[in-house]
Specification:
This protein has 7 helices and 7 strands; from the N terminus they run βαββαβαβααααββ. It has 217 residues and is of the alpha+beta class. The longest helix is centred in the middle third of the chain and has 14 residues.
């Protein structure tokens, strides 16, 4: 789950209009073992705690799948209304593994709906369908993820899958997560509003967004 499973890390993206000094940041206290807060427009660090400590990122890894999808949309390689088919392999592998969009084998799903299935529903299956649809396989998409991480300067991260399923060779740091989050916010303003959606219904199944911040404003 993209936000429900944030147990060890808090990645804060302060709004550009927010005035927040280093002195304020020094007063922040958190029980999180790894944490960082940055100012989204500039990348300035406002607060950090063990920000370079490797950790299992769980579903926060899905931000890389989202980033790569947004990038291909921006570059015109795919369109929001393009459809990707749910392969038998993806259906069998992910239908009972963690959070799901409840996709069906052979079903054709638009990129738009798959993105909401990832962002709102945290669907492991949705990530895999996007990966296969764009790269041909999850394995190739993982290679893309590691190449992009290096390009973005995420030097302490390594991806082993497309959705953050537990794996010893799959890890990130709070600082790298902040870097990735900032790039999503600043590079893709036209798609970023997807993150504010509180509910998404697919296959007649409604699921609410797991981001608690959406319900505290």
């Amino acid at each position: 789950m993209m936000t429900h499973k944030i147990r060890n890390c808090i990645v804060g993206l302060a709004l550009a209009s927010l005035t927040f000094t280093a002195a304020h940041g020094a007063q922040i206290k958190t029980q999180a073992r790894e944490a960082i807060m940055i100012e989204a427009a500039t990348g300035a660090v406002l607060f950090e705690q063990n920000a370079d400590q490797s950790m299992p990122p769980s579903s926060m890894s899905k931000l890389m799948t989202v980033y790569l999808t947004f990038e291909r949309l921006r570059d015109g390689n795919i369109l929001l209304d393009d459809e990707f088919e749910v392969s038998e392999r993806v259906w069998r592998k992910w239908r009972l593994q963690g959070s799901t969009m409840f996709l069906k084998a052979g079903q054709k799903v638009t990129v738009h709906d798959l993105l909401l299935g990832v962002i709102v529903q945290s669907g492991n299956d949705a990530c895999a369908v996007l990966a296969e649809g764009m790269a041909g396989s999850e394995e190739v998409f993982v290679e893309w993820s590691n190449e992009k991480a290096a390009e973005l300067g995420m030097k302490d991260s390594h991806f082993a899958n497309v959705n953050g399923w537990p794996d010893e060779s799959h890890y990130m740091t709070a600082r790298d997560l902040a870097t990735l989050s900032q790039r999503i916010v600043t590079e893709f303003p036209e798609y970023y509003p997807m993150f504010k959606e509180k509910k998404f219904t697919f296959n007649d199944i409604s699921q609410t967004n797991r981001n608690p911040l959406l319900y505290s404003m």
